[in-house]
Design goal:
alpha/beta; six-stranded mixed β-sheet; four-stranded antiparallel β-sheet; 37% helix; 26% strand; binds adenosine-5'-triphosphate; Monosaccharide ABC transporter ATP-binding protein, CUT2 family
Length: 238
């Protein structure tokens, strides 16, 4: 609890038209933490992730990361600062090879490319077997691992993952979450959105529950998991 805050979101308001989707979000992530962001469909989780990554302009409020004000920075500058989003829907380049997809993650800083690709292949051995295939031919789980590997190639200091388990079989989800748990144990700071609330809470240190663009609950993962009313209202019956 006494580790420093690295990401601070204050009174963040944003939306797509005149109507805001986020109505003043406050959220903090400390170094080395895994924080889960939970809530029903349409609560605003993806919108928040996109705002953090500079893909969605804040109307009011601020975003600070490691002492730098990110609120008005363009998305590339935010990536360069080490805040990296793996977006919802595992957006790999289907016509490119697995290797080229991985390499694309390092476009801002291609130093030690081969060494870093090798690290990713050790982390996700399934990708090595498919290295020269088109990414579009991978299974959903392999594509999600590829999306995470591409994100890691950008040398994140905080990794934002939007719904990594979406549409994956339970066995594949377990494999993916094991990889996330390993990343966390290596010291990576992670902000995770996932519909699999029970799984996300099993890994996370703390959680926020978002409803209608507002934080309606926050606490340690254990506290949130033990709250029956929350489980009924927001966390689904997974
Ligand atoms: P989900 O799990 O379904 O992705 P979410 O919590 O991530 O839900 P958001 O995707 O952030 O929710 O959506 C929040 C609200 O913003 C919803 O009402 C949605 O319809 C609206 N919204 C999202 N993207 C856009 C867009 N590009 N243009 C207009 N409205 C949008």
């Amino acid at each position: 609890a006494d580790t420093p805050e690295v990401l601070g979101v204050g009174a963040l308001v944003t939306g797509y038209g005149a109507e805001p989707v986020l109505h003043g979000i406050d959220l903090q992530v400390r170094r080395g933490e895994m924080v889960a962001l939970l809530g029903a469909n349409g609560a605003g989780k993806s919108t928040l992730m996109r705002a953090l990554a500079g893909l969605q302009r804040p109307v009011r409020g601020g975003i600070h990361f490691e002492g730098v004000d990110l609120t008005r920075l363009p998305a590339e500058a935010i990536v360069a600062r080490g805040l990296v989003l793996v977006p919802e829907g595992r957006q790999v380049f289907g016509e490119l090879s697995v290797l080229d997809n991985i390499r694309l993650g390092a476009f801002l800083d291609p130093r030690d490319m081969d060494k870093r690709v090798e690290e990713m292949l050790q982390r996700f051995p399934r990708l090595r077997e498919r290295l020269h295939q088109r990414a579009g031919l991978l299974s959903g789980g392999e594509q999600q691992m590829l999306a995470v590997a591409r994100g890691l190639m950008s040398r994140p200091r905080i990794l934002l993952l939007d719904e990594p388990s979406l549409g994956l079989a339970p066995k594949v989800i377990a494999e993916l979450f094991a990889a996330l748990d390993r990343l966390r144990s290596e010291g990576m700071t992670i902000l995770l959105v996932d519909q699999m609330a029970a799984l996300a809470l099993a890994l996370a240190d703390r959680a926020y529950v978002i409803e209608g663009g507002r934080v309606v609950a926050q606490g340690t993962a254990a506290e949130i998991a033990a709250d029956d009313a929350l489980a009924q209202a927001y966390l689904g019956a997974h």
